[in-house]
Amino acid sequence: MRATQTRAVGSPGTPGGAAITSPPPASGGLPAGRRIRSTQWAAMAFAAPLIVYLVAFYAFPLYRNIELSVHDYTIRAFVQGNAEFVGLANYADIITSQTFLPALRNTALFTAVSIAFQYTIGLGLAVFFRNNFRLSGVLRGMFLIPWLLPLIVSASTWSWMLNSDSGIVNSVLQAFGIGQINWLTSPGMALVSVIIANIWLGIPFNLVILYSGLQNISPDIYEAASLDGASGWKRFWYITFPLLRPVSAITLLLGLIYTLKVVDVIWIMTTGGPGDVSTTLAVWSYREAFGTGQPAFSPASAVGNLLILIALAFGVLYLYVQRREDVS
Amino acid sequence: MTSRPRWWKTALGVFFTALMLFPVYWMVNVSFTKTKNMRADPPHWFPWDATTEGYQAVFHQQMPALATSLLIGFGSVALTLVISAPAGYALAKLRLRGTGSLNFILLVAQMIPAVVMAMGFYAIYLRLGWLNTIVGLIAADSTVAVPFGVLLFTAFMSGIPEELIQAAKIDGANTWQTFRSVILPVCRNSIVTVSLFAFLWAWSDFVFASALDRNGSMIPITLGIYKYIGSNTTEWNSIMAAAVVASVPAAILLVVAQRYVAAGVTAGAIKD
Amino acid sequence: MIRLAKSARVAAFVGVVALSGAALTACSSAGNSSGTASTGGGTYTWWDPYPQHDASSDWAKRVDACGTAAGVTIKRTAYDTTALTNQALLSAQEGTSPDVILLDNPAVSTLADTGMLNTTEGLGIDTSSIDQNLLAAGVVKDKTYGIPIGANTLALYYNKKVLDAAGVDPATITSWASLTDALAKVTAAGHKGITFAGIGTEEGSFQFLPWFWGAGANLKQLDSSQAVAAVTLWKDWLAKGYAPNSVITNSQNTTWEEFLTGNFAFGENGTWQVDSAAKAGFPTGIIQIPAENGGAAPAPTGGEFLTAPVQKATGRYATTKKIINCMTTTDGQVKTATTFAYYIPPTAAGQQQLLAQKPDLKAWVDAVKSAKGRTSDNLGTDYPKISQAMWTGVQKALSGSLSPKDALVGAQQAALKATR
């Protein structure tokens, strides 16, 4: 990402460049060795708040989650603090549970389809809004409004709209002669419905980041391209899209990580049902811990850790691809 | 290439926006609907038989919660910026040792589900005495935004030409002064972007508020809404009214901030 | 330009921290007092699942009054029901339980099992006058862990206008067959039949139980033929269009909203909607939910129990007992009943007094007397797991993924596995 950004921004040769060929007469006249170390100190000082923050706020919850998953925390053990150590038994239990494969499949579908559509629609809109026209700023701002709403409100609104009998969507479809679709209650459509709502929720994020990425591409490049006779689609496919690749990569990765964690939308719309049809790993974890009268924290945290591992795998993949690109 | 008239783009833009915001319209519709019409089949496109009881309830009861949400939002923004901007600079320009592992840890940090974080925080906050406080909630809400902020700042700051920094060094600035007077102004747009994200995430947070600030004297609007959810009954028009009222100031903020998120990062800085 | 200079932002942050620091010290000092023993004047913490009753409501005032009568101030926090159990567990783990929690009755045995609740015998609270069927939910291994503040249950509300138009007399509905016939007549006359809550949560189980028990089925055997009959009843209604498809995701609130549109002949709902029914735009009434072959089906009890969590400072219990007794006097029970949309008092004396004030609640009082706790039959902590298996099976059957028989066989297997 680093290298590409610099390339895109414009060539060096700024005023004063000539003076930078030799180390400047350093303020204070420090010898070279000392200067490097003081930069490292400065770097650590700047990064220190972050490191303290990370340790304080992320290390403990993660540790606690792992601890929960390798003990057998019945709620009695949870309250009394005397849980038995069971090693990987919880993980074995969840993998052999009958909910595991459906949840895995649903997670894969939910995530892949959501991201594909969010990204494509976000990119399309970003390109559309690129050339400023009247009201484009206001409209672009309005696209972020879904983000403002508490999830209970947006998810509930989608539930209302997709209700089999009193929902506006079916009402409109019936006006066009299409029969009643049981969006939230039929095994075939429940997952589709939550995916649609999730796509809607994810478009603002993609739009904002991709739009910023587009703005970073210098118009000079387009001028050069149009001189060569490239237009419209070719311009997009051969210039815009490749230059956008680093931004796209991070958008897709973050989108993946956030989508893997989604619980509220699905829970409010279908509670993971009917049956297990719209249960993803995240929803399963939530349901085990909070969705029944008997909180089962250990299986819930085991599923949660599984989810983190999956996200981790993609993260590693991303960094690997990054490194290869940086080298090339 | 401005030969084509622009109005058709505006029209198309309005159409897309209307499509995207239709659920928001529906929310407003429900907020004016009487309970007996909630499940009307076929549904009412427009609340002909309107009621303002939802809004009345909100104005009488939820204004302090709105103010609290605003406070938490801005606090979260401030904390996020204070932590992530310097860190981004360290990662991008100061060649911090261990950059790779820090990046990796930041990615992992974002993978932890909110519920897991909330349960962990409960234990920590209990010992710190931060339960049911605004400070605690601000810190918790910022955990969503900080890793993202560092990522964004690192990316944008990497694109700042070295020449700018060297120019500042020639003038005798130390690292902090360079950061403050050269880097930050140039990163104005990424600051606004990160602030926007941090604010929005804090504004709509429910999980942390529910676990950590339930019996505080100041609760945010996402918890305030639960006042309308009894054990067996729910007042939907009040809930939607609360959401509408809560969205208005934030929406205005959004539209204004969009201008800054729009423009390029250093495009304006080095062009002569 | 909306961007603040960095120094201004830092100042703002410091300001926020300072302000909150002041609030923090105020809050933490209030919070710490719950750990210390206090005899006169102190703060006792109270959790209940009624967020719709805020500080200015009658309920809150009653709670405060009982506190003052016991010589202390009560700090009340309202959670939504689902969050309450988990918050109770978290705080019990940390040793910071509140002094009184109002728990939904199926949760009492679960929390009692963790050892975090006191027994009423231990506190010296007398429960002899409480109706046995209502107390049963709070009894685990012959020890009682709380007192019900009142009970509610389910019945079938009917829309008189719709029934008249279809020529149906509600008094003739005494069995499943007669109910289904009535539904057929109503839909033939152009209206909708019945609505209920089949959602995949405890609410769904709650609404399914009258039919389940009305067929003679037992929660220990989810795949019995009687259980299959109950699920098939619901499924057939959906197939014939007597019940709308939305029942699969309906909560009880949504069910009521559907009933209020005036299009439905019947809506299964509880005592808490009595006032709303009176204000509906059409005349309403109730009938008991019929059992399969005649008579009224046992309906599950809803309602919360007053419980006293275990505290480190045992000196607090004397005052806690005073508070609980204050809330459960006969007068107190009737007041709770009327504040709370008709929780029926759990004692004979309370019920009589309520009927003296509101004679038209007789049908509900009768319903509560023949109602059954969900955790009774010695199910205790097994109930939540069985319930989850049951609602999952019902959902699969109603949505058509599995036949009723297969769905319930799967449910029984899941229940057995979970309660091993």
Q: If you had to describe this structure to a student in words, what would you say it looks like?
A:
The complex is a heterotrimer of chains A (328), B (272) and C (420). Chain A has 328 residues and is mostly helical. Chain A has one domain (55-327): MetI-like fold (Orthogonal Bundle), CATH 1.10.3720.10. Helix content of chain A is 71%, strand content 1%. Chain A is built from 16 helices and 2 strands. Chain A has helices at 2-9, 32-70, 75-80, 89-96, 100-130, 136-142, 145-148, 151-161, 168-175, 190-215, 219-227, 232-243, 245-260, 264-270, 281-291, 297-327, and strands at 71-72, 84-85. A two-stranded antiparallel ribbon of chain A has the order 1-2. Chain B has 272 residues and is mainly alpha-helical. Chain B has one domain (25-40, 47-265): Orthogonal Bundle (MetI-like fold). Chain B is built from 14 helices and no strands. Chain B has helices spanning 7-20, 22-31, 53-61, 63-92, 99-111, 114-128, 134-158, 162-170, 175-186, 188-203, 207-212, 221-224, 236-262, 267-270. In chain B, helix 3 (53-61) packs across helix 13, helix 7 (134-158) runs antiparallel to helix 10 (188-203) and helix 10 (188-203) runs antiparallel to helix 13 (236-262). Chain B starts with 6 loop residues before the first helix and ends with a helix. Chain C folds into 2 domains: 41-148 and 302-369, Periplasmic binding protein-like II (D-Maltodextrin-Binding Protein, domain 2), CATH 3.40.190; 154-300 and 378-418, D-Maltodextrin-Binding Protein, domain 2. In chain C, the strands form 3 sheets. Chain C has a 5-stranded mixed beta sheet. In chain C, helix 2 (58-69) links the parallel strand 1 and strand 2 (73-78). Mean pLDDT of chain C is 85; it is low at 1-39. The chains are: A mainly alpha (328), B mainly alpha (272), C alpha/beta (420). The interface between A and B is large, with 109 and 116 residues.
